[in-house]
Amino acid sequence: MLQFGTYLPKKRLLSSSYCYFNAMIRLFRRPCILAFLFLGMLSADRHPLHMSSATLIQSQKHTWVIQKTIFTDDLESAMEAQGYEPIRLSDVSKHQVKLESFLRASLLLFQGNKGREGRPIAWILDAPYQYSPESIKVTLRFTSRGGFTLFDTSLLADFPDQKNIYAVRHGSDGWSQHGLIDPEHPSIYIP
Fold this sequence. Notes:
This protein is α+β, with helices and mostly antiparallel strands. Helices cover about 25% and strands about 30% of the residues. It has 2 domains: about 1-45; about 50-190, no CATH class.
């Protein structure tokens, strides 16, 4: 028979393996829970990759639609870093104007392949944006004849590893182009 010193009451004797197993579980429960909590805090980074994805679709002859998805916490912290008051984008009606202002400063379109020297193209944000705790989805519409250059600097200044990925479709034929925007290459040309 086994008798444990300070971990169990002194006079308690264990006679079966089942009781021994339960005693061991009780003995190691607290250290195991603390170890799991400690490991959880060490790996509490929200997500290791900073990226956004977008689909650029030519819906009619000269009409284009951008459907962009951005991580919610990245967007909130980037807006705060750009001077906006700390916000939670879950209140869509309250923050629609702020989000549009942020996107107007960071998502620019220019006619032709001359970069920022081309004629600016105005875009319209469909209201409201779609909120989920993980991501924000925005839809933008614009009209362009011929090729254009898209600059998307959203989140690039705040996250050095940020990637903005674009899939471009010119019609019902399928995907015709893919583009990657990062701090070294902040634009793509769409012919």
